[in-house]
Amino acid sequence: MRGFVLAGGRLIDPVAGIDGPHDLQIRDGRIRAVGRPGALDSVADSTRIALDGCWIMPGLIDVHVHLRDPGFPQKETIASGLRAAVAGGFTAVAAMANTEPVNDCPEISRYMLARAAEVKDGARLVPVGAVSRGLAGREPVNYEAMVLAGARLFSDDGIPVDDTALLTRAFSEVNSLGFAVSLHEEDRSLSGSGAANAGATAIVLGVPGVPAQSEVARVRRDLELALKTGAAAHIAHVSTVGAVQLVRGAKEAGARVTCEVTPHHLALEEAALLRCGTNAKMSPPLRDRETVIALRKAVADGTIDMIATDHAPHDPSSKQMAALGGFFSPDCRPELPLAAPLAAAFCRAANGVIGLETAVGVVLQTLVNSGVVNPMRMVELLAVNPAHLLRLEAATLRVGCAANVTVIDPEARWVVEPQRMVSKSRNTPFAGMELQGRVMMTIVAGEVSFDGRHRSAAQ
Ligand SMILES: [Zn+2]
C-alpha cells in the first residue's frame, strides 16, 4: 500500500517533547518516519500532502460522548456519531452507557463495537460500562465481564451514583481491573427540577435553579472515598469553583483523581440560555462569569486534566422546541419571566448539547488564541490525558506508533452552521458563532477518515 507524507506542518507532540516544523511519514497504519522539513521528500511510494501553516498532533480523544445507539436513532447513531467525531478531529471517543438498553452487559458493548467496526471513515469507539445495572443505582454490573467485552471506563453518567456502598464496591472492583470510574456529580435533593444555574438567569427566566452546592457536596463525598480506597476516580464535567478547589486539594493529598471540563463550560456563561433557550440547557448547567474564569485558570494550572465534549445529541421535540414556539430564535425574544406552561416546558426539555464538531474551534478560541494555554498543553488536554484515562496506548506520533493524527489550521475562520453538521442533531449553543481554528484532516489507524482541506469557509 502507498503511504503518505504530511509535509510543511508544525508537529506538536508533548509525549515526544516535540513542538516545531517536522514532516511525518505514515504507512500501513503506523508512523514510519519523522524528519526535518523536506527530509522525507524523496521517500519512495509516498504521496506528499502539503500542510503548510497547519498543526499536526496526536489524534484527539474524547472521554465523554453520548452516541444514543442502541435506543435513540433519531438523535444519533454509532455511524453518525463516529463520523461527527472525525469531522471534529477526534480519532477515538468513549461512548457513555445511558443507551436503551443500558450498556451494563457484554452483549451491548459487543453490539456497539460491532456497529463501530462497520463504520467506514469513523473514529474508534471505546465503550463505557455502566456502574449500576440499568443505571438504577442499586446493583453493580459484572465489571470484569464488561472489561473483557471492551469497556475501558465505567460511569452512570447522566445520573449520579447516590448509594455510597455501591460506589465503594465499584471503586474497588474497577480499580483492581486497572480502570477508572467517571462520576456525574449531582445531589438530586439539591438540584431537583432545576433548569439553570441558581442565579440571575434562573430568576430572569422564571425557572428553578441548580445550586453549585449540588455538585460540590457530591464531589466532596467521592474524593474522600477515592482517597480512602486508593481507587482512580474521574470527575466528569466540573462546573463549579468548589469542585475545582476540592480536586486540587485531593490531588495534593495524593488521591488518584482526574477531572474534565467541557468546551461550553469554558466558553459560555449562564446568560447564553437567554439567547439559545434549551439549546444551552445542560446538566450541570452553565454558570456565572467568575466560574468561567476560575475554570479556565484551573485548566491552565493543571487542576483540570482534560477537555471532554459531553456530546449529547437531542432531537427538537426532546428539547421542547414546539412547546416553546419561536421563543429564543433571533427574531423573537420571549417575554420573561416565562409564563408557567412555558417554564414547565423549559424544565422538561432534555439536558445536553452537541459538541464534537465545535470543540477544536471553541478550545482554540477560548484557551489558545487568548493565551490561557499553549498548543502543547492543548494537546495534553485533548489527547494525552484522555488516552491515559482510558488506558489506551500513549497519544504520541513517535516512529512505530499507530498513526492516529489530527491536523488543524489554527488560522482558519469559520461560522458554526448546525445544518451542515455531520451529527444527526442540531442542539448547539454555538450556532452562528465565528470561530478561529478548524480541523483540516483526521487520520485513524493510518487512513484519512476526514479531509476538510477543500471545503469552503462557509461549510
Ligand atoms: Zn453528566
What does this structure look like?
The protein is α/β, with parallel strands linked by helices and 459 residues long. The strands form 5 sheets. It has a 6-stranded mixed β-sheet with strand order 3-2-7-17-18-19, with helices on one face. A 4-stranded mixed β-sheet has the order 5-4-1-6, with no helix packed on it. 30% of the residues lie in helices and 20% in strands. The chain is built from 14 helices and 19 strands. Helix 2 packs parallel to helix 3 (143-149) and helix 7 (212-229) runs parallel beside helix 8. The protein folds into 2 domains: 3-56 and 398-411 and 433-451, Roll (Urease, subunit C, domain 1), CATH 2.30.40.10; 59-389, TIM Barrel, CATH 3.20.20.
How far is the first residue's CA from the last residue's CA? 32 Å
Which kinds of small molecule does this entry bind, naming each only once?
A: zinc ion
- Which CATH architecture of the largest domain is right? Alpha-Beta Barrel
Mean pLDDT: 96
Overall number of strands:
19
**Helix share, percent:** 25-40%
What structural class do helix, strand and pairing data support?
alpha/beta
Shape: globular
* CATH class categorisation of the largest domain: Alpha Beta
Helix count, per DSSP?
A: 14
- At the fold tier of CATH, the topology name of the largest domain is TIM Barrel
Q: Show unreliable segments.
A: none
Instruction: Report the radius of gyration as a whole number of Å.
Output: 21 Å
What proportion of the residues form beta strands (DSSP E)? 15-25%
How many domains? The number is: 2
Main β-sheet description:
6 strands, mixed
